[in-house]
Structure formats: C-alpha cells, structure tokens
Design brief:
disordered N terminus; 304 residues; single chain
C-alpha cells in the first residue's frame, strides 16, 4: 500500500514537472516541437552574448548604455519578426510557424522591458528625473507609449484572455501591433540620429507588413492573394525605401536629392537599407514559390 502511494506521488510529481517545464516546447497536441525548441533557444542567444560582452568588458567605455542599446535593438527586431510570422506562414504554406508567434512576441516585450530597466539603472533610479525626461524628450515619450501598448498586448496574449475578451475583441485589440510598430520605428529613428540604417530598413519592412495586412483582409482565409500583387508589393517596398531614404536626407539634412539617388544606386558607400529590404522580400517570395511547387498536388490522370 505504501509503495503504491509513493509510486502515485512520484507519478504526480513527474506529471507536474512535465506540465511546468515542457509547455513552451510542445505543440497544441502535447507533442514535443523541434521548431518551438529551436526558436526558444535562439531567442536567448542575443541576451547571452550581450551579458558575456558586458562581463568581459567588450562593450566600450559605457557598457551599461551599450547593453541598453543592444536589448532595445533586438527587442524591435523580435517585434517585427512576431508581426511577420502570420504573413510568412501563409506565403510559405507553413501553418505550424504560428506556434512560435506568441513566444516571439512575448520575448520582444521581455527585451524591451530589459531595455527600459537598463535605462532606469543608467539614470541611477532617479524616477523623478526619468519621468521628466520621458515627458520632455519626444523620442522617449513615443518609445514609452509603444512599450505600454506592447505591455497590454503581452498581458492579453494568453488563451484565457482570448476567451475572456472574445475572439473578435481580442483580434481588434491585437491589430494595434501595427500602431506600436510605427511608434517603435519612429522612436528608433529619433534616437539613432545619423545612424539611420536599421530604422530605415525596419520602416521598409513595416510598409510591406502593413499593406500586406490590408491585402490579407481583402483575401481572408487559406486562399492566397494573387502572386503578382504580392511581388509588386515587394518591389514597391524595396524601391520605396530607397526613395524614402533619399527624400529624408534631402528634407532633413539638405542633401541634394539627385546626389542621394546616385548614392542609393551605387554600392561604393555600402549596401543601402532599401536594397536590404528588396533582397529580403525577394528571398521570401522565392521560398514561397518553391513551397508552392513542392506542395502542389499531382493532377490525376483521366480515365481511359
């Protein structure tokens, strides 16, 4: 009798450990998911490298500030990756990719929360001064509003909150992620000053994602929109990023527009963000075409 009780207790403890530790690595059927495991591990890689660089003194004269920027950069990257998962899952005909969307979104919030925490630490926990800076500096105000909005989306990302809010209200609330993306890119632009390479690239991706969302609303369900329309959107996003950067330097820094266009086309000064956007989106569409060819069912032969 005692042995049976101990076996039952051991089984219950083992079951509890499985429920506590495994869910992030399982799919909805309860089976182990290599995809979720690989993404889960990969999401911690940037923070691990940043912690190592900080501990070994490789972050320069102001290591705390550099760590703050590293966490902020990766937080915005993961935020855009979370937004991109839905269109990628449709274009690549890979519905299981949606398994990692919540994980990536929550990790984006965690990185940006660490970004804010390091900023508070860098300011020596002077909360009055921090509040004054957030109210006085517009780029800090925009960034803080974006973080508050992302906090609300993270808090309502659970299955229980979906049931509590109702599917329609939940979807309506989480569509604000595009507004948060706009605020995040604006904060990144204003904070980066002259180093606008990554903010410009993210702005190009945000245009593609936002317009793609509108197209997705026009063509809902599993059926994809016309491929010529998606290819056209990729070209518009890429070349539009090139023109947008040239126009930005012309209006803000008085650089002649023709000179900027020449610099955008030439690669002597390095690859411009627009080419990075165009190349990435074309790679996405090539993978989509390969997946369409791979998943195409063979047509049955007509009966004799």
């Amino acid at each position: 009798m005692i042995a049976c009780r101990w076996e039952e207790r051991a089984d219950s403890i083992k079951s509890l450990n499985v429920r506590l530790l495994i869910p992030p690595l399982r799919d909805y059927s309860g089976r182990f998911s290599p995809l979720k495991t690989a993404v889960f591990i990969g999401l911690f890689v940037p923070s691990g490298f940043t912690a190592y660089w900080y501990a070994t003194g490789q972050l320069g004269a102001r290591p705390l500030t550099e760590a703050l920027h590293e966490f902020g950069d990766w937080g915005i990257r993961f935020l855009f990756l979370a937004i991109a998962i839905t269109p990628l899952s449709r274009l690549w005909r890979w519905p299981r990719l949606l398994l990692v969307r919540r994980m990536v979104g929550v990790m984006a919030f965690a990185y940006l929360a660490a970004h804010l925490t390091l900023y508070v630490t860098d300011e020596m926990f002077n909360l009055a001064r921090i509040a004054s800076e957030i109210l006085r500096r517009i780029y800090l105000t925009i960034g803080f509003v974006a973080w508050v909005g992302l906090s609300a989306l993270t808090a309502t990302s659970t299955d229980g909150m979906v049931r509590f809010l109702g599917p329609r209200n939940w979807v309506r609330l989480h569509k604000t992620i595009y507004v948060i993306g706009i605020l995040a890119v604006t904060h990144y632009f204003l904070q980066s000053k002259l180093n606008e390479w990554q903010p410009t690239m993210l702005a190009g991706f945000l245009f593609w994602l936002s317009v793609g969302r509108v197209i997705g609303e026009i063509y809902p369900g599993p059926k994809l929109p016309p491929m010529w329309l998606v290819w056209l959107l990729c070209l518009v996003a890429g070349f539009g990023t090139l023109l947008g950067e040239a126009l930005y330097f012309n209006l803000v820094m008085n650089v002649p527009f023709a000179r900027m266009i020449t610099a955008e086309i030439s690669t002597t000064a390095g690859i411009r963000p627009g080419w990075a956007v165009l190349g990435t989106l074309l790679a996405v569409m090539i993978v989509s075409s390969l997946r369409a060819f791979q998943t195409r069912k063979p047509q049955p032969h007509p009966a004799a």
